[in-house]
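Dear Dr. K.,

Following up on our conversation at the group meeting, I've run the structure prediction for ADP-ribosylation/crystallin J1 from Streptomyces vinaceus. I'm pasting the input sequence below exactly as I used it, so you can double-check it against your construct before we proceed with anything downstream. Let me know if the numbering doesn't match what you have in your notebook.
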Amino acid sequence: MSANANTTTLWRPTGPVELDLVRALDRRAWPPRLPDQPIFYPVLNEDYAIRIARDWNVKHSGAGFVTRFEVDTAFLARYPVRQVGGETILELWVPAQELDEFNAHIVGRIEVVHEFR
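The predicted structure tokens came back this morning:
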């Protein structure tokens, strides 16, 4: 569900390093991808983001966070929804070289909605 008819709510499970970078960007953008990260993938539902943050990020970095943010819906139409598992395992795949443009279409701030340790 979105707070605005013109935006889509997305979630992103993240670890502490990426979250620190988001905070350094005033919670308005995602940091550039690392060389071994060709895709930025926000997810389309909170439950899936929770599972990744809790079950993967905590195991690999000691903490996991679920972030929520809004993106201009018309802009997102260029990215097909990818079903990468079960019926609710849905992601958008944003090529790393398009992340600056993606960030320019974020509406408001990226907020942390869950934290796991």
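Two things stood out to me. The longest strand covers residues 106-116. The chain has a mean pLDDT of 95.

Best regards,
J.T.
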